Amino acid sequence: MSFGDPNNPYGQQPPQAPYGQQPPVPPQGQPGYGYPQQPPQQPYGYPQQQPVPPQQGYGYPQQAAAPYGQPGMPGMGMPTGYASWGARLCALLIDGLIVGLVPGILYGIAAIMAASSVSDYDSCAYDDYQCRADAASAGPPAFAFVLIGLAALVAMAGGIFMLVKEGNTGQTVGKKAMSIRLVREDTGQPLGFGMAFVRRLAHFLDSIACYIGWLWPLWDDKGQTFADKAVGSVVVKTQ
């Protein structure tokens, strides 16, 4: 008696095929007991389902950042090589002229006012002690000191502005005029304000050894100064 066949509840044995004949084939509608189940077929005319590509699971390695030579920020242009030392020097001079123009004028006016007070002292007669005492006590005009303080504030504000531009976009006014850009060596992206500030401080390394670090890009393969090597930055051409 068979208890495992749900299609034969009474325990009867299925009829045996005569000797030499094949067993009957079960109908196509439903497979018989023991036959493998077939997946349902889609009706004719329906679109066939395409296999869905597997999704990248959690834990798989993500795509790495684009190395140097890949496109950086939109609108900034693709790097086409390392910037020359001459282009970097011209960009530095342009930035220095822009930042130092107004403070230089203010310092000049303050110097003229201070020189006028000295001329007043010199104009006194050699034996006119009262005139000399009055001129020495008066000293430079107070407005001259105001101009000096104002010039220092303007120079500081201009330097911070250039530093923010260089950190966020990789280009100061001078670098943009010379079509060069400061980027990270490994990703080709701008340094950011913090690392740009660190790089500015690291220029001390360029000046400490008789300013040889400023000339190092002339023979360096990547055109880097000591400060560039310290923070991992390069200056590249954008055209």
TrEMBL record:
Superkingdom to which the source organism belongs: Bacteria
Keyword tags: Cell membrane, Membrane, Transmembrane, Transmembrane helix
Biased composition, class Pro residues, residue ranges: 15-29
Record domain RDD: where: 82-231
Region feature (Disordered): 1-64
GO CC entries: plasma membrane
Family annotation (InterPro entries): Pra-immunoreactive (IPR051791), RDD (IPR010432)
Pfam family, one: RDD
Bilayer topology term: Multi-pass membrane protein
Localization: Cell membrane
Designated name of the protein: RDD family protein
Organism annotation: Streptomyces sioyaensis
